[in-house]
């Protein structure tokens, strides 16, 4: 081992202790610091670990085997050498007592386990389960190691623990899932140790990073001549730019002032707070890069994250390593090559012989070049197999609910079936730092029979958007509204591939309705309808649509280009003016055309005495077809075209009425679904089905 110079750390520690007016004795400091820490975790109900029943625990919890005793002896000898070579370093976390008061080496407390749940096969699922299932308990003294380390089975039973308990359980699950994971004993910031995320942005609000598109460089480029510009316009643009920069500077200064005001005070124990977390090395399970996992939150962090201030030691179920690198700059410069004996001192070398070299001045009482046999393998874990039942895995929150406070946001989580409406998660966004003004609320649901998945509510505009999974009886995908009353403004999105008419979205207001289509054979993609005001005696759409529906003023349809038709025969837009009794057609353009062909029929219906024929005159038909063929100039062709358009107009009016009826039906169904919410139970959910069966038998 090499002696590390830590003068700066010692001086910083002395300054911190003086700032607190604490005596030179760390024992006095340990008695004062917990009072400060209790205020951070005042919401955690008290729990007396000394009152737990250990009589039912296996004998491995209460005694040590011969190998375990030998391991403790080796650990004591290793600690003796460590303290001699590094007298200024803090003590190592080697063999705390377990729940039965028996000393156990930390590596044997790990119990690699792969639980039979697909979510726990990935590191994020394991981290999320541990952070949700357990309740955080702060260390008794934030700058000292805990005196005990309980088994993961006991921690799971009582669903609470400190950072070391969280880390051991998470590391056991990760190793069982095939990751190269290690428990870390080190130091972190107050926010990490106290689970204070009020200055962090909620992960659900973080935007994914955009991958920049790489532009292909061309060897030969056409030089584009710059357009002439007015000097006066350039001067005006420069003035506007300067004014904008001045305004931006003022805003930045105001932001700096607010940040300084909101910035928390300097932590007097910065760099001294003990914390434990998980290290995952790259390689196994195709992990591309080494990273940390904070067991309290379940979030991953880069090894250069400034929240982690230093590492004392790491261990897994096979060995124990002491960090011999300088941590004055945190963990950003650390190397995690554990095979490097200079940077990491290993306790149980992989070779059968270890040559212990000692200096003449420091170790006079030990033999020089002493060889000792270290062909010793780590004993198996003394912890019983980790088991988590289906009921426990589904109800991950010990208190039924979990609340996380972020910067101007609050995240609430529930286990499935706890809420009668299927609510499992709610994110509330506030508009002020004091979290008093609610701006937006987003809710997530599970197991809803109506397939409701998410609901977004804007509290400022009172606009609500419901999102549905595939499988809704009306094929709903999303529904935006302010009220479920008709004609109050609704936007409905559908799973268009499952619909016969390929309708993707419908937007309805009091006076308009617009429908958007995708992939239709007739190339229709937009239908826009304008309604007029109801006359006296005409109410809202209801049971008698012939008397109460809104009068249709205009129907407009837009079509995509049909490549199988000539452009002068392919209609791009057609407008039916119902009240004016006129029809307007606009055709597509060819690539070389600049003006579209148009045809308009004004009051085209003129009947004879029998009321059967349609007459076309120069006053009733106006056409402009500069690129059309002779066929389109024929009056008979226009007559047939008008006849077809009149038929289409009747069909369109019928389709509009069907759309209105469908809107009313959707609103009625959604109102019934919200009034009578039903939750579904998967056939694989044995625990929930047992509860349903017991309820049916009891009734």
TrEMBL record:
Pfam families: CEPT76_peptidase (PF24656), MORN_DRC7 (PF24667). Residues 1-47, 236-262 are annotated as: Disordered. It is found in: Cytoplasm, Cytoskeleton, Flagellum axoneme. Residues 15-25 have a biased composition (Polar residues). The keyword Flavoprotein does not apply. One of its GO terms (biological process) is cell differentiation. Residues 236-251 have a biased composition (Basic and acidic residues). Residues 399-682 form the Dynein regulatory complex subunit 7 MORN domain. Transmembrane segments: none annotated. GO terms for cellular component: motile cilium. Keywords: Cell projection, Cilium, Coiled coil, Cytoplasm, Cytoskeleton, Differentiation, Flagellum, Spermatogenesis. Residues 1-14 have a biased composition (Acidic residues). Belongs to the DRC7 family. This is Dynein regulatory complex subunit 7. The lineage of its organism: Eukaryota, Metazoa, Chordata, Craniata, Vertebrata.
